[in-house]
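Exercise 3.2. Students should predict the tertiary structure of the chain below and write it as structure tokens, then compare their answer with the key that follows.

Predict this chain's 3D structure.
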Amino acid sequence: MANEPEAEQLDEHDDEGGPIKSFLEHLEDLRWVLIKSGVAAGLAMLICLLAGNYAVRVIEWPLARAHPLHFTDTKTVIVSFGTNQLTSFRVGTNDAFSAIVGTNSFIHLEIVPLTIGTNQLLGLTVPPGPQASPGLGIQIINLSPAGSFIVATKVAFYGGLVIASPLILYFIAQFVFPALKMLEKKYVYRGLIFGAGLFMSGVCFCYFVLMPIALAASVQYADWLGFSASQWRAEDYVGFVCKFMLGMGLGFELPVVVLTLVKIGVLSYGTLARSRRYVIVIVFILGAVLTTPEVITQVLMAFPLWLLYEITVMVAWYWEQPDRAKAQRRLLLVFLGIIALGVAIWLGYKYGWPWAYNHWHRNN
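Answer key:
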């Protein structure tokens, strides 16, 4: 009997949260969270700094995989000597090189030694056999003595944040969880698990899908303005790619954060629906901050984030519906429409945007 009040007190603490601490004790816990997070981020950045050459190769992969979008009749000419690419440039239909390129979207010219009589000359020739697509033909160059150090620092900073983010989130959770109720802890645990998966999904989606399109769109936009886009500074390219991937990873966690707040009771479907106009403005601001200052890449980042928010709103609406079977059918139709839109965008990028119009014109 003497232990019953104590048992009731423990149950009450479990329902209401952890033990009550003073303000100075909370500050001490926060100090240790900051120390442990800083140490984890510092060690991860050191690892990325030591493996900087491998990290740079990984960052350059989307550029090597990107292909022109074929908005115009501009064609790409690649000039190489041996295994080294010397330069690349683009020609229009009225340029002298257009006769050499023909109907191809690109051509590879190789500088070879020629012997004419007793004279040794250098000439241009087309290598035999089928030519693989050269991609965008962009060279990443360093234009300053400190450029390589700046690139290594950026790679270490962004890579360290990505690697250390699970530990940092764990330390923050240790600080916050004692103040949560059992039900709130359960939803937050689920949110952390799904959030980590969505963060990596956002990074991979940006790396494998969005990044090649964004790079190709940037080159196409420069061609449309009449600028040469055959060379990019290494620090600008690395900073753009890292910020883009990190921003998409954080943006993909939006559904987890919002739906966790819906489950806890902080937000509702009505609140999310009324906030739609503000969210659209916010995602475009994020697209402007985390990408290059031109419209195409900003839209490429803002559109998936807005689409994720709309999916979040639909899930919150589904949770509030009394007839779940009817709501499931409506959600299925919406998701099929989203998949069809994604397939259409992929076909346009893969085969060139005029492909859709030409295919439709031939069939009609």
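Discussion points: Confidence is low (pLDDT under 50) at residues 1-13. The radius of gyration is 27 Å.
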